[in-house]
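User: Teach me something about this protein's shape.
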Amino acid sequence: MHISDYDYHLPEELVARHPAAKRDESRMLQLDRLTGALTPQVFSDIADIIQPGDALVLNNTKVIPARIFGKRIPSEGKVEALLIEERGPGLWQAMLKPGKRMKPGGEVQINGVDHKFTVQTRLDNGTFEILFDTEHVLPLLEECGKLPLPPYMNREMELDDTDRYQTVFAKEQGAVAAPTAGLHFTEELLGGLKEKGVNIAYLTLHVGPGTFLPVSVDDITEHKMHSETYELPQETVDTLKQTKTSGGRIFVIGTTCVRVLESCWDEKEFLIAGKGRTDIFLYPPYKPKVADALLTNFHLPKSTLLMLVSCFAGRENIFKAYEYAIEEKFRFYSYGDCMLLL
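Assistant: First, the predicted structure itself:
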């Protein structure tokens, strides 16, 4: 299976660099997984599609302001750091620019605060471990950090991003990228679904920067997937079991939720609750076991996310949908429009 099978050309003007005026007014392309039929809609229409007794699965991770800037000591050369995840008290894995000049023992004074970090080691994947002079790194980031917008937006963070690059249900701090399918929901829409009798269930997967990386090998089966931390609560497992038992459908919101559910799938128990790390890589002909429907944004060419959604409806149907979306000028990627695979 070759990576070229998951490549496509996207006109630059269809990359969404800013969010829609209102979250739930994004366009939504419904794809019938069996027939391949396409139906253009508005996202708010999903409130009529999800029925009482169905379940909605949401990723409640919260994006941290993980992008910080500083100066090397004593040269004062500029440094940019993107924190990836915490590895111990004050110890974080990070991407550093310019990485070639960062050596173990090197110190960086952080802009805007009276704190610094020291480079501990360079890891095999080109990232670094850095040690802050405080264990209270998350409060520090609130003072001096910026939200790490995806690189394809090609712009600096703006005030509006502070709100719009978080889901309205974001709770658990730790992601460096938003679970973008969830960005379309408003508190009012979720409240209406709950009143209607829809079961709302949450899990956590802290999205890392690896989500934006294209597959670089010709044979996708040789790709090494990035690893991310997750938590699947017992309450969510119980809700989804009850939904299935009662004949309801499970609507999974975003590929991050799919990865957690498929990582926790058990043939006898259905799902096993718990915390852990997952590097699960889903691509055809794999068939997801838990979700009955998937809401997802439009993904980058050659990305693992594009391969994952192809598991739901087949590569041919997905690419026909992408062709249609391009022709109809849907907006792509994190701040873009979405697809409902039903």
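Now, about its shape. Residues 67-145 form a domain with the Thrombin, subunit H fold (CATH 2.40.10.240). The two ends are 26 Å apart (CA to CA). If you'd like, I can walk through any region in more detail.
User: That's plenty for now, thanks!
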